[in-house]
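Two entries, shown back to back:
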Amino acid sequence: MYIIEPYTKIQASRMGLTVKPSHDKYKKIDVFKDGHKIASVGDTQYKDYTKYLKEDKALAEERRKLYHQRHTYNTLRERLARKLLW
């Protein structure tokens, strides 16, 4: 099961959302607004900013930059992953 880092919880609260570990074994977190689930985001096969940050801050910043270059704001799930995990 994915452990939600404080960074993600802070980002979620700034957006008026709550996050919980996902019940979907392929996703990291379930995102809720006003108690209703709006999305499951983050593939469990890949690291995110918070995980890279534990290894090396410079590496985390580089991986974040590359993630932002690869991903756009096309879907709600992508926007949420970018804001909450990166």
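entry 2 starts here
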Amino acid sequence: MQDEIEMNEPAEVIAAFRRGKKYNCWPVRFVFKNREVEVKEVGLAYPIRKNGALHHIFDITDGQADYRLELNTARLVWYVTREADHYEAT
């Protein structure tokens, strides 16, 4: 079972850039709501257009919860737009 929360929280993100990898840019660590999260895996990354601006979406996990990070390339700001906790089946 997953408990999913939609949000639009600003985030401070450390990202890596490297050509020739699966993604040319990917988040490594981020801070939001005074919590620091280390990215363990990027599951999916894709661009979309919102209100005329290009946004890069990253579905990621820290191994305990899933997050969706969104980079607004027009304003160069990051947001956490979704958080989902993992719960083990009993």
